[in-house]
Design brief:
With 260 residues, the chain is α+β, with helices and mostly antiparallel strands. 38% of the residues lie in helices and 24% in strands. Strands 3, 9, 10, 11, 12 and 13 form a 6-stranded mixed β-sheet that branches. Strands 1, 2, 4, 5 and 6 form a 5-stranded mixed β-sheet that branches. Helix 4 (104-113) packs antiparallel against helix 5 (118-128) and helix 6 crosses helix 7 (204-221). The radius of gyration is 20 Å and the shape is globular.
């Protein structure tokens, strides 16, 4: 269905603002033109049926600024805990090498269970299969490298595949008993944007349970995660003794990201 030249890609590495490198894949325009209509149709269908995927991850949904939504949620939760003297434990989680670890078999199985039409699934699998990547190095382009897992950052369908792959993690988390409950009684499990997520709980003990849920989701999806739990703070929010607990990630290990 898809010609071989549309499955070839060139990969460059762009420097990240805070250090390290971000791999970006350059694909043929014809390949993007083939993939785009299917992705757009799936997004339009999800807009009519938002229950297809969990709402904890708004990335890839048209009409939403996922980064702003996560930031607003974090601000509202923190303000609620501070204003009403409620205990809050918060952790920032980063999925490690997210786009490199996506499992195409798991993505297809999730789409099948969510009712995605078979023709659409077959086209996505065809586009993602037998891809070859040429990596730009200091000495020129490398020999072709077979791409058997992951999703190419730069492909039209990459955000959609990433959203599908992480859905199992969000479902496990949202069905668990670890959350922050607002003064009005709203239960907030967390918020997520692509490979970054915030987890909310009522105590550090509950955060350990949340991390166990993440591990279970990792086993199901193949997506690993990291969280810096060595910077833990505690500060009172009311004389009643209620406290706000928070964790902030330790400095990222940049030695794993090297220019090829």
């Amino acid at each position: 269905i898809i010609p071989n030249q549309d499955k070839q890609a060139g990969q460059i590495c762009a420097r990240k603002p805070k250090g390290g490198w971000r791999p970006l894949t350059m694909l043929e325009t014809s390949a993007k033109g083939t993939e785009a209509p299917t992705v757009k149709r799936k997004q339009a269908t999800r807009a009519q049926h938002p229950q297809v995927y969990r709402q904890g991850n708004l990335s890839g949904e048209s009409g939403y600024d996922a980064a702003a939504e996560v930031l607003y949620l974090d601000t509202l939760v923190t303000e609620d805990a501070t204003r009403h003297g409620r205990s809050l434990a918060r952790a920032e989680v980063d999925y490690v090498k997210y786009f490199n670890t996506l499992q195409q078999i798991e993505i297809d199985a999730t789409e099948e269970l969510r009712g995605v039409p078979e023709d659409s699934r077959r086209l996505r699998c065809e586009i993602a299969s037998n891809r070859t990547v040429y990596v730009l190095t200091q000495w020129g382009w490398s020999d072709p490298v077979a791409n058997k897992r992951g999703s190419c950052q730069g492909a039209v369908g990459a955000p959609d595949e990433a959203k599908t792959a992480a859905d199992v993690i969000h479902r496990i988390r949202e069905q668990g008993d670890v959350y922050y409950q607002t003064q009005a009684g709203r239960k907030i499990h967390g918020g997520s944007m692509v490979d970054d997520a915030n987890i909310y709980a009522a105590s550090l003990r509950d955060l350990c349970t949340a991390f166990a849920e993440l591990r279970l989701g990792s086993l199901a999806s193949g997506i690993g995660f990291a969280s810096g739990d060595d910077h833990t703070g505690e500060r009172p929010t009311r004389p009643s003794g209620a406290c706000l607990l928070y964790t902030s990630p330790s400095p990222r290990d940049r030695t794993r990201s090297r220019m090829p």
